[in-house]
């Protein structure tokens, strides 16, 4: 799932287990750093906010970032689970 970070950079949400989201990002985030992003699904833009758990480099230009959500509405949780759930 393609996402747009609040910094204007594009990233890709990879997995969601109901509590944590893993994404591929062009930049790393320090533990506890805020992460805000927008995604457009089913025609509607949705904004999400969370905190980084940690980042690790996966190649020369991307990082795998794990995050937890600050507040996540039920319909947004279900949307993420539908598109990214394991």
Give a verbal description of the structure.
The chain has a single domain (2-84), classed as Beta Barrel (Thrombin, subunit H), CATH 2.40.10. It has one helix and six strands, in the order ββββββα. The chain is globular and about 35 Å long. It has a six-stranded antiparallel β-barrel with strand order 1-2-3-6-5-4. Helix content is 13%, strand content 53%. With 86 residues, the protein is mostly beta strands.
Briefly, what is this?
The chain has one helix at residues 74-84, and strands at 2-5, 10-16, 20-25, 34-41, 44-57, 63-69. The chain has 86 residues and is mostly beta strands.
Identify the notable features of this structure and list them briefly:
about 90 residues, Thrombin, subunit H, about 55% strand, globular
In the CATH classification, which architecture applies?
Beta Barrel
Question: Which CATH C-level class is it?
Answer: Mainly Beta
Low-confidence stretches: none
Number of domains: 1
Per DSSP, the total helix count is: 1
The number of E-state strands comes to 6
Helix content: 10-25%
CATH-derived topology: Thrombin, subunit H
Secondary-structure element series: EEEEEEH
Question: Topology, please?
Answer:
Elements: E1 2-5, E2 10-16, E3 20-25, E4 34-41, E5 44-57, E6 63-69, H1 74-84
Antiparallel strand pairs: 1-2, 1-4, 2-3, 3-6, 4-5, 5-6
């Amino acid at each position: 799932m393609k996402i747009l970070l609040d910094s204007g950079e594009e990233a890709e949400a990879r997995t969601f287990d109901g509590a944590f989201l893993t994404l591929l990002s062009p930049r790393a985030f320090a533990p506890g750093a805020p992460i805000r992003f927008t995604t457009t699904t089913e025609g509607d833009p949705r904004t999400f906010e969370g905190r980084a758990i940690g980042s690790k480099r996966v190649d020369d230009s991307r990082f795998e970032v794990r995050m937890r959500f600050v507040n996540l509405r039920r319909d947004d949780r279900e949307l993420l689970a539908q598109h990214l759930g394991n």
